[in-house]
Amino acid sequence: MTRTMPRGFRVKTMLVSVFTALALVGCSSIPTSSPVGHIEDDSGDPGVNNARIPDGPEPGDSPSDIVRGFLRAGAGTGNNFSVARSFLTEGEAQKWSPQESVSVLPNDTDLDSLNVGTTSDQKTMSISPPVVGLVDSSGVYNSTKPGTKSTLEFSLRQENGEWRISSAPDGLLISQTDFRTIFLNYSLQFFTSDYSYLVPDSRWFLRSSSTPTVLMNELLSGPAPYLSGAVITAIPDGAKLNDSNVVTIENGVAQVPLGPQNPAPSDREKGLIRQQIATTLQVIPSISAIDLSIGGQAIPASLQPKTDTSVQVDGPPVVLAEDHLARVSGTTVAKVENSPNLKKAKASDPAVSLDDSLYVYLADGGKQLMRLKSDAVDATPILEGKKLVRPSIDRFNTTWTGETENKGELKAVGRDGKSFTVAADFLNGRQLVDIEVSRDGTRVALLSKHRGEPDRVDVVGVPRDKAGNPSGHVSETPIEVGANFDEIKDVSWAGSTSLVALAAEEGESAQPFRIGVTGPAEQLGEVSDGSRIAGGVDGRSILVTSSDGALYSYNSNAWQKLVDVAAKDPSYPG
Q: Residue 218 is part of which domain span?
């Protein structure tokens, strides 16, 4: 699969401000992975310093040296990428737009080992490095399929007796390590359809003094396409920052001046707008509060309501153990009091609601979806199918599943027994393996397979009506998560912005990974013969079961086998 990086479209004004202010980055701290951590300039971390101050061109460098040096220098953000621009002719240095996109290299890629195609006069060169991720101009990270390459073409000429690049593709090409050093993950905040929770829309941006302005402009532009229809914003369409078009910070207080709105928002709407903005900006360490104004009128903090940013998971995970529904508590497994004996039912894949009021599981080899209420004695069938996949329960106590041999649709059954068919056209003809609903109910993660292709996890928004019931279809623009893997055995939500999965690249055995919904994957140690994985809300509470019933718990960045415990099919509430 080949991807060409054209000069093409111009980047949005909001991102230009990130890069034009990069001269300030050299004297500021740079977090390595999240908005709350950072590496100081004097940290002594050689990787950080090398990323910021790459080598410039040397006298007598060959065209190949110039091209490779230019690509390496993309990791140096200081002074508006001045080192990278030094490999360009004077005219091209003014035109080159590093903010067009970001292509992320595998860490084991050595640019010196890549073949550079060249013409006989060395005036035209090309290189096709592998890439594992792409970040678009809005900061949305997309993982790429195995074998994806980025084809880069360069023109060179001599300037003052030295080879320089006269035409370069816009955008950056940097390693995974440099990406995590230079870029930070921020979350734009939107609301669930009932305004009960805030939903994060994960983006990646360079850290600079203009990051607050970038975040505000992206927030005003709305959610990423895969969330279309699933989340809402309190900010009216067309809202903009005032004529200054800048968010400034004074003594830790972010000054956010929005232009006038017509019609003027109510006090409730003002409070919701303030909360959405404040929660988005509060991840920036230098911001302790915001001063919001709309059309010059200050919006006081007293109008801001309290909305939860995540759905709490209070109950322990459910498993199947000794032919009964059971709950895992610490290092023990306890049978659910009213669980029937499930041996004859050929039961599998249990799930429990967030409020612990009901359990569901598959029976008869996936032909029946059964539900057991916590105050009932007997389980009852709520859906029949040919071979249903592992169910998942959302915060509305609606149970989701679907047929393995899928025709582009999901099934949902409400607490009252009403069933819904939800179109997901991109699944048509694929084999659905698992469906996992995010605990806020706005997204589903769908693991599917197709013969001859790598396994795929799509995350897509779930539009709902006013009663919280799913509408007739999911969003038409899913985002593919963890596309770098050839095999994905199982997947689970592990917080609001990430999943955990048992996944493997070609020729390797599946291991536990944490994967950002829009972000790179991170391996979480090794577990032998893992078959199922389940994640809690904090991303640290993770269980893995093996095919022989062994149960492993992830604690303190290590896996611990629960001795004398045999269980299968773990699932945290929700």
A: 184-303
